Amino acid sequence: MNNAYKSKFQLLEEIQQLRTKLAAVKLTTENRTAELYKSEERFSLAMRGANDGLWDWNLETDEVYYSPRWKSMLGYGENELDGTINTWASLVHPNDKDMVLKKVQDYLAGQADSFEVEMRMHHKDGHQIFVLSRGFKVTCEFDDKPIRLVGTHIDITERKKAETFADNNAQILEMIAIGRPASDIYSAIALMYEERHPGLRCSMLELHGNKLLHGGAPSLPKEYCHALHGLENGPSVGSCGTSTYTGKRVLVENIETDPKWEKIKHLALPHGMRSCWSEPIINSYGKVLGAFGMYYNHPGLPNQEESNDLKSAARLTGIVMERDQAQKRIRALAYTDTLTGLANRAHFYQRIEKLIKTSDRHHHRFGLLYIDLDDFKRVNDSLGHDAGDKLLTTIAKRLKGTCRDNDFVARLSGDEFCILAEEINDDYAANLAQRCLDVISQPIKISNRKLTPTCCIGIAHFPDDGKNSATLVKAADTSLYAAKENGKNQYAFYKPELTHKAEYRFQVEQHLREAIEKQQLSLVYQPQVCINTGKIIGVEALSRWNHPQLGQISPVDFIATAERIGMIKPLTEWVLRTACSQAVAWKKEEAPILRMTVNISPNHFLDKEIVPLIKRILDETGMTPTELELEVTESVAQTDQRNLSILQDLKNLGVSLAIDDFGTGYSSFASLKHLKVDCLKIDKYFVDDILVDKKARLLIGSMIDMGYKLGYRIIAEGVETSEQLKILKNLDCRNAQGYLFSKPTNVNAILKLLNSNY
Ligand code: C2E
Ligand code: CA
Ligand code: CA
Description:
By secondary structure, the protein is an alpha+beta fold. About 35% of the residues are buried. It binds ligand C2E and calcium ion (CA) (2 copies).
């Protein structure tokens, strides 16, 4: 049909159809362009970073596309993660998530010009990687609304590691510069390398002489560090022991099989260590100061990076070590008296301040001994300064030698020395002072002359005589003058009564030793009486010491002294022999006693020599074993299994056993059972109370009752009045001992009593 003949209507219809077609074409072209644009974008991004991962987030559908590289960066395969919901959210470090989302929002809202963020993400292997994420938004053509966010991921882990390492390095240098303690810096160095190589554990050892001392190893077990501390280095002493010995790097691939570890592998293997590489730490003069060790829990040798790090770690540690040792040397010089090697005045004051603080906190006492040589000036003037110096060094050595390791000895100036002694018992300072007087007064040959130096010592106590260093030193100095006033070779306390007490005690000690050796003690006997019949059933032997000058000394004092000075054994032996001989003699004189009891000190009783001693005495004296009773205090009942055999052996000899002062200690009837005790001596303390205290009566009553039921003999001690005796009788107590019957008396008086009744 010719256009000319077409109706107007037809034409209009055709135009409409063409319009519709055009519109359709336009639509597909638009779609195509968008599609094309999208893949072009991905392509260009892919090109931009060959190693970058791509992501594409459709903000309208919330779907995200992750490229294969994006996935592989996190350890996942191409087809993995596809079904995962919130893939990104599940892989980003929880602490970084909010920060990243905030940046996204700011960018989408137009508050930031670009989107670029560093974040931590979880790798499939479990470790963490650092990712740099960059993105840009794609907006809708018509209204500029963001419809997609497209971007890349770059793995920046290595860079980050290098940055942290550099940061840490800078921090360590700063620590060195501001003089932080070496141990802190050692830990920081170890942690820095451990952070850089996951699984690595570092150690730093210092070499002192030929001993390896712990420097730092924050990640190694304490037990292992303790075991290595003090180890001697050598040609095959693990990795560090060997490297410090040879001065060369030692790489041990397998601790289990390497011969160098043969002797000490049992220390490392239980803690999992399997390989150990060690670099000697060498100072600027080429001297080996120690070693840096790297441990892994698997066998292996270092790769290039680890090998380089081993070297730089040792170098860095070396700087710290060298500096630390130099500082220690300087400090030692500043605090040491160069002539004698003792601590000097400055060190003394530093120490006493410290000691005051800790003693105050723990309520401890300590003693300060101020020592001054007698006539030192004369030696210096007449024999010259060299002689004076020699005398001082000898005195210093002697003082040091007589002190415990804990005591602190210093030379304050010239011929003045001080000792700080933490009190382990009341008499420690006095004993120490006496020992110092003794050692100092040993003769010494100087310039071909024999001298007998002497000194005086003033003693003051913290906190009694002074609560700060100034008053305390003054108190000791005052005491020193008091000692000097008494003559040469003396000591004196700040409180005069203490000096007298100490002197007396010292004299007692001196004389007691002699008295025991020369058998100058004597025995008295106190009858034990059967309440019903009034007959003497036995006697208790008690020691007496009457010294020509010191007078009568209480056994309570001299027995304790004998224990302290180690003389209790000869004393007991003498008592046993004398008492047994006496019992045998009485028997011959037809004045039989049924039982002789002897007191044995708890310490001596638990000595394994007690059994042979008793046996020997029984044999020597001809004493009937069953007539000998040993008295021990309740503390023996607290004894352990080992001592039970001593008791059994004694029982086998046939001697019997009494618990002295029963009721004052902590023994129970239950603990007595396995001791195989024969007799309980109820302490005077209860007997004293029996008249006034109803409870005491009740207590004694039940002790007696229970004791008899368990088959023990019972003796009430210290009975002084007939009223006491009456009550005891009512309580069914059958035996008693005390002044009511007789004081402890000598042999002759006892003989008369034995033949009479009460
Ligand atoms: P102890 O074994 O409890 O001895 C009893 C003490 O009480 C004795 O004191 C005795 O004289 C005293 N006494 C006895 N009856 C009465 C009384 O009715 N009233 C008063 N007030 N006291 C009375 P002594 O002889 O002074 O002995 C004291 C402590 O010394 C003894 O206590 C004993 O533990 C120890 N002792 C004495 N001689 C020796 C010994 O040869 N070896 C051992 N290891 N210790 C001994
Ligand atoms: Ca006794
Ligand atoms: Ca007693």
